[in-house]
Amino acid sequence: MSAVPAIAASHITGLVLAGGRGTRMGGVDKGLEILHGKPLAQHVLERLAPQVCTLAVNANRSQLRYAAFGYPIWHDLAPDFPGPLAGLQCGLAHCTTPFLATAPCDSPLIPYDLVARLAEEMAASGADAAFAVTGAQDKRQRHPVCSLLRKSSLPSLDAFLAAGERKMELWFATLRCVEVDFPDERAFSNINTGLQLQQLEQEQ
């Protein structure tokens, strides 16, 4: 029985999703909120960079400020902030590698082995997509924004969005997906409010 080919980091583009409205945080650009002296998005970029061959940021505003991090800025292909799936769409459309790894700008503690573990499970299963999961049974939580996708899934996503659909988990349900368990729930914490940001600042 032949070994399953590994998915190398050199075949993966990383994308930090910072294209939302920040509604739950009063409309601020969450990725630029400061944690321990650095913008949230910078924390994510620094953790994701060693895991992929190239990086970009999906942003629909504050683009000059995001560009200061030194990475390409890719904006949604559709107007009016249609949601995180639009960020995945722009990433898949722009990336020149066979795979795209994504993480949200408001999760500054993402694991340093996030992409490697997603890639390992995707290669083993032959899936179209892999995403992180934490917890067990009734506390099991999916994190589809922390995902690894094949570029070949773009036509499926284009059609899904063209039909007016927006829910990420509904699109993932149309693909061959593998859920990858991670033990540390805290690593996938989202900063959605000023209070959560303040608490994380105090914890570390």
From TrEMBL:
Domain of life: Bacteria
Residues given in the record as GTP binding sites: 17-19, 30, 58, 76, 106
EC number of the protein: 2.7.7.77
GO molecular function: nucleotidyltransferase activity
EC category name: transferase
NCBIfam families, per the entry: molyb_mobA
HAMAP family xref list: MobA
Protein name: Molybdenum cofactor guanylyltransferase
Native source species: Herbaspirillum robiniae
